[in-house]
Please model this.
Amino acid sequence: MWVLVASFLVFFKQAGFSMVEAGFIRAKNATNIPTKNFLGFCMASMGFFLAGYDIMFGKGGGFMGLSGFFMRGAENPSGVPTLAFWLFHPAFCGAAAAIVAGGMAERIKFPAYLIYSLLVSALVYPIVGHWIWGGGWLAGLGFADFAGSAVVHTTGGVAAVVGTIVLGPRTGKYRSDGSANVMGGHSIPLAALGVFILWFGWFGFNPGSTLGVGRGELISLIAANTNLDAAAGGIMAMVTVWILVGKPDLSMAMNGALAGLLAITAPCAFVDPWAAIVIGGIGGVPVVLGVLFLDKIHVDDPVGAFPVHGINGIWGALAIDKTIGLRVSREEELRRLDIGEQGLESYAGFQIVE
Model:
């Protein structure tokens, strides 16, 4: 029951990702992002059922599992019913896919994103997960990631930044002199709602990774660490951006809270609350510096996916680019992806002016 409830909370994070990313982009594309997140989770669920679970937890060696595809005779190291354990993980790999949507927002083709989501959930996330949680080579070296800082967020963040570099910046993002145009989000309140939903969902993400309640001491520690870390990250990001640009930018503070949540995901069961505050506070600073740095080197990450989530590693975005293409046409990008790709408007009856 605990694992199922935690799975439902982590699933609810998909709504949070959709709201954050929709709020941080322009109004003309506000339908496009939830569409990608919605279908991306559908692809993640199918991909992880057909192959991902067995690559992650199957027998086969240090690199990947090679047994039990289509969940037939699937390995179960958890001690809970197999399908409950399975359900917990599509919510995780769906989060990795949602991070990619944010980093490549406002210019990636819908079919390309669906393929991206399927590959992340059926192959990339499970292989990385096998290395750490499936008895793979990193586990053999003593690497510990309690709830997925590396497995989920690094995978998604790196995939996002690689895709962002391959796609190039949004049309008009950078001036001829190299300076950046501000393409502000159309609804900061919507993004704030998304951050609160993600924060709430993280109480399933981290405490749920215990896979059991026990006497309650461990899940209580993890939940407290999760909350304190997010709060510290938000405060330090706000202070940092206030010092650097002279204004307490809410969007940076929210990304700081998310950075804190990410930072505590791996050590949440191993540290005391005071250490969680330190970890979150430190995590809130580089997210601000990272956003500013990416603008300096002309890497256009509309929602700060890489500064929040990514650390290392690269996977094959280039081969997608050589087949069906990643990027929409310039005309579609300027006209609105909501119309060009989905045939819908987010705000019918309103004229969107940029």
The CA atoms of residues 112 and 325 lie 7 Å apart.
